[in-house]
Design brief:
With about 290 residues, this protein is of the alpha/beta class. The chain has helices at about 15-25, 35-55, 60-70, 75-80, 95-105, 125-130, 160-175, 190-205, 210-220, 230-235, 235-250, 260-265; strands at about 5-10, 30, 70-75, 85-90, 115, 135-140, 150-155, 175-180, 280, 290. The longest helix has 20 residues, at about 35-55. It binds nicotinamide-adenine-dinucleotide. Nicotinamide-adenine-dinucleotide (NAD) binds near residues 12, 38, 140 and 274. GO terms for molecular function: NAD+ binding; oxidoreductase activity, acting on the CH-OH group of donors, NAD or NADP as acceptor.
Length: about 290
């Protein structure tokens, strides 16, 4: 199937990155959110990130202008339904995602492919509530989208071959690489990565190390480019907690229990970089550990 227009639902850190790379690859993008503030922020951020690519000579000024010109923003979900491919990238809560697919339903074109950028939620379950489970796929980008090479593609039990291959074609047009994952809680990357982050939070909770020593230990001792707590702040602590809950509920194994300290940070609204406070405080010039 020929994909020309892409609807992105949710203009947070993932949605704006997805809109950015899609527009640069030549797709017409409609980006929507429930918050006008999120849309305004997303357009400013996309412009700034494209400028950075121009200054690094990755793209030309003309490519930058054309890409920005291909993105329109809207609060109206109906406009997003009238596209060839929808990528849902809203908050990691199943009820939020279900409501989005419910409200998209009356506005879809007959062949619109539906996808979700969920980090962990069952693709089969999300698909089963739509009128087209065979045209539903997990389309899981990594953060930050313009820089990360991988996209996980997750087939639900009903996903057909054409849908998978069409989305694979989109990944290739982006110049990215797809990894195919089966539809089990958190798929491949987050099944491995987020329990490691949760374990780092337990290490902090039990006083084995402080924020700086834990991050330094994993950077210098395991050659990770970012420490696990720094990475948690980057992903968003609400998203990390949501993924641990999906693993815990879906696999019914106590090894996935979310650390109470992670829950506490989320309850405080200290969600990491996006709220300027998490395991580090980002309100000053330099990040300062909060523990
Ligand atoms: P975020 O908090 O930055 O953004 C979520 C956005 O969704 C917000 O702008 C919010 O206003 C919007 N939203 C909420 N309800 C909505 C609705 N009903 N309709 C439209 N928009 C709505 O979150 P994020 O980090 O961009 O994560 C989005 C999705 O991407 C989640 O499913 C997450 O698991 C997944 N994901 C996140 C990462 C990461 O590192 N953060 C990586 C891969 C995938």
């Amino acid at each position: 199937m020929d994909i020309r227009t892409i609807g992105v639902v949710g203009a947070g850190q993932m949605g704006n990155g997805i809109a950015h790379v899609m527009a640069l690859a030549g797709y017409e993008v409609r980006l929507s959110d429930v918050s006008q503030e999120a849309l305004d922020k997303a357009i400013t951020l996309i412009g700034r990130n494209l400028d950075r690519q121009v200054s690094r000579e990755k793209i030309s000024q003309d490519e930058r202008d054309q890409a920005l010109g291909r993105i329109s923003v809207t609060l109206d979900i109906a406009a997003v339904g009238q596209t060839d491919l929808v990528i849902e990238a809203a908050t990691e809560q199943e009820t939020v995602k279900q409501k989005i697919f419910d409200s998209l339903a009356p506005h879809l074109l007959p062949n619109t492919i539906l996808t979700s950028n969920t980090s962990s939620i069952s693709i089969t379950r999300l698909a089963s509530r739509t009128d087209r489970p065979e045209k539903f796929l997990g389309f899981h980008f990594m953060n930050p989208v313009p820089l990360m090479q991988l996209v996980e593609l997750i087939r639900g039990i009903a996903t057909d071959k054409e849908t998978y291959e069409t989305c694979l074609g989109v990944v290739e047009r982006l110049g990215k690489t797809a990894a195919s994952a089966e539809d089990f809680p958190a798929f491949i990357v987050n099944r491995i990565l987020v329990p490691m982050i949760n374990e780092a939070v337990y290490t902090l909770y039990e006083g084995v190390g402080n924020v700086r020593s834990i991050d330094m230990a994993m950077k210098l001792g395991a050659n990770h480019p970012m420490g696990p707590l720094e990475l948690a702040d980057f992903i968003g602590l609400d998203t990390c907690l949501a993924i641990m809950n999906v693993l815990h509920d879906g696999l019914a194994d106590t090894k996935y229990r979310p650390c109470p300290l992670l829950t506490k940070y989320v309850e405080a609204g200290w969600l990491g970089r996006k709220t300027k406070r998490g395991f580090y405080d980002y309100r000053g010039d330099e990040p300062v550990p909060t523990r």
